[in-house]
Amino acid sequence: MKTKLVSYEIDLANPPPLTETQKTELKARAAMPDEAIDDGDIPPLTEAFWANAVRNPFYRPVKTSTTVRIDADVLAWLRAPGRGYQTRINAILRREMMAALKKG
């Protein structure tokens, strides 16, 4: 038995217009008071949940190429452990950025 596979591509920058039925449903939901919304199937997010939360393991920040002037001794120290000195530079800068954001 053959199955027919249908795929669609959606341009998120230019989504298709909503149908009248969709518009009506959205208006009805927007008019609902918060108390009328059934959220009984959503588990509470406790402090324990957030203590064990991890960043999406598939998250990859966008990399950009740049030129940076670094003191020769600093560069030698970064290269001393072997390959990956640029990754080490990024890790050090990210650690400092996160610390500064927590202070700010």
From TrEMBL:
<dbReference type="Pfam" id="PF14384">
    <property type="entry name" value="BrnA_antitoxin"/>
</dbReference>
<dbReference type="InterPro" id="IPR025528">
    <property type="entry name" value="BrnA_antitoxin"/>
</dbReference>
<protein>
    <recommendedName>
        <fullName>Cytoplasmic protein</fullName>
    </recommendedName>
</protein>
